Automatic annotation (TrEMBL):
Domain of life (superkingdom): Bacteria
Domain DpnD/PcfM-like C-terminal positions: 5-48
Name of the protein described by the UniProt record: DpnD/PcfM family protein
Source organism of this protein record: Merdimmobilis hominis
Lineage of source species: Bacteria, Bacillati, Bacillota, Clostridia, Eubacteriales
Length: 56
């Protein structure tokens, strides 16, 4: 019997609304909010799961 390393990747996704003067500023605001834990993603935000083989 052989052993294999299988990588399991879970994807969480949440849409947030921010007020900004541009798309770039909105992205910065959302990134800062995420880094500051203003937006917490949990099991309710589950989007998909991916399985892949780890390369040697």
């Amino acid at each position: 019997m052989q052993e294999f390393q299988v990588v399991i990747t879970e994807v969480l996704q949440k849409t947030v609304t921010v007020s900004a003067d541009s798309k770039e500023e909105a992205k910065r605001i959302a990134e800062t909010g995420w880094k500051n834990a203003d937006y917490l993603l949990d099991a309710d935000d589950f989007k998909e799961v991916l399985f892949s083989m780890r390369r040697d």
